[in-house]
Amino acid sequence: MRYSNEQSLKDLIGQFLEKDKLGLQLKEAKLVADWEKIAGTMISNHTTKLYVNGGKLYLYIDSPALKQELNYQRTKLVELVNQFVGSDFIEEVVLR
Q1: For a tag on the chain, would you pick the N or C end, based on fewer CB atoms within 10 A?
Q2: Residue 90: exposed, middle, or buried by beta-carbon count in 10 A (0-12, 13-18, 19+)?
């Protein structure tokens, strides 16, 4: 017997995560955990800290030359991160 208000478990979990803002925290955790897959080994090795706040990805890079190169590639980095996460999660990259 089917009910008219049936929904898939995937849809219900998605609604729950959106309602309680847990989806953003899960995306941030995925980003931090998989940073090496997203940016590559060299960038990952020179990243001392990264976090997301208000749609901005803050990266602390210990190499001035790499920081300058990433400064030129910020829009590409935003695209890579958003593609990996699967939504428009990051709007801007801030290098420190």
Answers
A1: N
A2: buried
Instruction: Please give the Cα distance from 48 to 60 (Å, whole number).
Output: 5
Do residues 70 and 59 lie in contact, with contact meaning Cβ atoms separated by under 8 Å? yes
Residue-level pLDDT at 35: 95
Domains and CATH numbers, the chain: 35-96 (3.30.300)
The pLDDT tens digits for 4-27 are 778 888 887 777 767 666 788 888
Read off the pTM. 0.81
Spatial neighbors of 9 by CB under 8 A, at least 6 apart, are: none
- The arrangement of strands across the sheet holding 56-61 comes to 47-53, 56-61, 92-95
**Burial grade of 40 (CB within 10 A; 0-12, 13-18, 19 or more):** exposed
Q: Which residues of the chain are under the pLDDT cut of 70?
A: 1-3, 17, 19-21
